């Protein structure tokens, strides 16, 4: 048997407070698509940084084609034939595609442009080499990243959560690209937490939990349930059953809202209409960057309209377009924003003080003074009821992991018992167990008669919990689709604009 | 000589201290470092150049010494901002004040002394043109400064080095992930900024007004800083802003000399007002700001 392309033995890496990788063993064969499966915080990204030379391991050995190596920089890793497509932080928005690529690929601009076009044709990665990156969609940016890697002629390509930003049709195109690459002898390390994807494309899977390897398996021989168990270490909680309900009165209505933001890099919204009734969950699907953020800010009240346009946003039958976020909340509206740090919570403040930010109306303030006892009790209730893992109410919000902080914020908002609830990206970066719990709570709220609006980029999530879905694309909303009568592919077509004529 | 031809002939020289300092700061800021100590670095460069020229080391020696001294001071700032990761605003202000203090200290014995200026080099033929002829008769530093401007513009725009500097300024984390030495590049950019500030100070003290007076930089470093921002980090606009400022400064002098019946304080503030209005108006374009602005400006970068 030939030596594996990449072989790791006993690789460990600790940061100040966490042991991110413990004793990792891993073999990647030539011509293999190898999955690294794990929850957020399981140590996948750290491991990739070690392989790619961004960080150095504290202990352990790395072999490349049988020879010991210790890449101390990405340059070194690249020169050996390792390429990496990052999930974040990797393209420069103010530069053009070819400029971005020329940062790591030597050569004359004209030659690079030609090669970019050629690779685009060969692998289905078409993109305009002279376009500025800020003008590209997320999917196109990913293509640029992959092209950039391919131009260095790698033997191993690392892809960090490549499908998390793509609509379903683009995922299929990406997979075709990956299979073509594999057939031409490129091995692929595919990092993901999406089990079905891994089962459909990978021939090996290494599963990480809490920084250690919990299994090496052939994913095609296990079902998703098995893999999930290895990944989270216990059984998955079952989704909450739906209680069929007749939708009640309309609590939130946007009627043909047009919005032109000041910032040229933001999406303008065109003729956006939606109606949200009590006792239902409406999902907004779409690829990120299609106007979700702008829509969220208009609904939450962060973006206020001038007084003439106040009836563009109606809550509880009242025009609120010109009201600020606090005024809208007083009507019985609550909101979980997409950014936890800075919008959902103040990172430098304790959880207790973060409670106060939106729950001050629940008796946490008396005669204009903060009632520390009530604040503490409320915070403890959120921590206990929503399974927030933290030393206590005095912990700094910024010190919590993303998933734990999200549970805290969702808990805080749900404790307000809103009649109209709006959540943006409810389970982004949240581990599977907690994500399922958050979804169950959302369905509970709906069953209890609240009106719930959810923006999410995860179609499966929306299909799990929503009564209806509308798709946002380039600032326009599709007609409402009833989930029980709709297939995922249909939503996907709206996401990529194939239903343009119909919409 | 009419007032207009006087302004046309002198505006490049008047602009030179601003231009040199602003171009250096432009490079530093493009890499993501905000150096607020420009004023002090110009002051240090001015005194060093003045002393060297006065000891008759010649202007070339004076400029080299000034550039090196200011670059060294800027490296102290860079060390604070990049290695110690101090707050860039505070570190820049502190180093700037240090530079002004050193300048006053070293210059004590030279107060009110003078040095010879530089001769004008004329472009044959063109310098005899009516009205605009003076434009083609400038000292060597102006000619070199214009060449340097072109070189900086071309480097930032077309070269790999410029690309890397811009990339580091926009997203240092990504640049590091690609294998670039972010800290090293920033050190280089800040040192270049210091060097240019030193030249700017040297020009002000030994060529433009070859006479030593404490505090002679008189806020020109701050104007240079403002020019960079108002010019939305674009080289061409920095040049435009600096020349505009120089031209308006000269026109208010011409106006005073010509006995215009306007309050002299008001006239003296004219260059500032005009420059702020004009550049404020052209920098109102949010799209340009977003594309040319430096996303990581002033943020400490750590591993």
Short description:
The complex is a heterodimer of chains A (503) and B (303). Chain A is built from 16 helices and 23 strands. With 503 residues, chain A is an alpha/beta fold.
Structural description of this entry:
The complex is a heterodimer of chains A (503) and B (303). Chain A is 33% helix and 23% strand. With 503 residues, chain A is of the alpha/beta class. Chain A has three domains: 6-232, P-loop containing nucleotide triphosphate hydrolases (Rossmann fold, 3-Layer(aba) Sandwich), CATH 3.40.50.300; 237-332 and 418-503, P-loop containing nucleotide triphosphate hydrolases (Rossmann fold), CATH 3.40.50; 345-414, no CATH class. In chain A, strand 1 and strand 2 (19-28) form a beta hairpin. Chain B has 303 residues and is an all-alpha fold. Chain B has a single domain (2-114, 136-292), classed as ABC transporter involved in vitamin B12 uptake, BtuC (Orthogonal Bundle), CATH 1.10.3470. Chain B is built from twelve helices and two strands; from the N terminus they run H-H-H-H-E-E-H-H-H-H-H-H-H-H. Chain B has helices at 3-30, 38-54, 58-83, 88-107, 140-158, 160-170, 172-177, 182-208, 220-230, 235-257, 264-282, 286-292, and strands at residues 120-122, 137-139. A two-stranded antiparallel sheet of chain B has the order 1-2. Chain B is globular and about 60 Å long. Classes of the chains: A alpha/beta (503), B mainly alpha (303).
